[in-house]
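Re: weekly structure request thread

Next one in the queue (193 aa):
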Amino acid sequence: MNEGVVIRNYIESDREALQRILKNEASYTTKRNGGGSEKKKECLCYMYCDYYFDFEPENVFVAVDNGEPCGFIVGSTDWNLFRSKMNEIYIPKINKNCKLWGAFHKLCVAVNKKQDNAGGVAFHINIDHNHQGKKIGTKLMTCMSENAAKKGKKFLYLVTMNSKTAGYAFYKKLGFDVVKRYPGGSLMMKKNV
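Done, posted below.
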């Protein structure tokens, strides 16, 4: 592993670099998955960056290599705040760019309620492709697990597109189990902290 990579808490000056990583690496926008419009890339920032940076920065951990962010993980430990701000600020912004994604994200927020009320923490993780395969994701997941446990949470969870993705293999290797299957192949996975 690259010994120069450290994990630290988010600072505001990380925002643009982390948004760039998300836009370049999220499976929805990568060239290997058909690319994505700038509007959809902005939607991803509303969904997986901006809320966390603005309202729960203590739940954002950043991988830094030689002073430059190369990956990050975000999670929400306050479902009421998450739901409120998503509905008030971010879902309307998503709707302006892509009504389908806005409806999808509103559904995700509603689905998360049951998991969050049971002590779960939904998270999102992205690593720059040049830094993948170096156990950075494992370090970020460890930080998120420790943070969740300190806040009295019981498990981490996410929904992945299907069992054929690299993400699915990564989560299985870390001990995540499939707890729900959705029409179309998506899977909810969780792991106790």
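DSSP finds six helices and seven strands in the chain. Residues 30-34 have pLDDT under 50 and may be disordered.
Next request, please.
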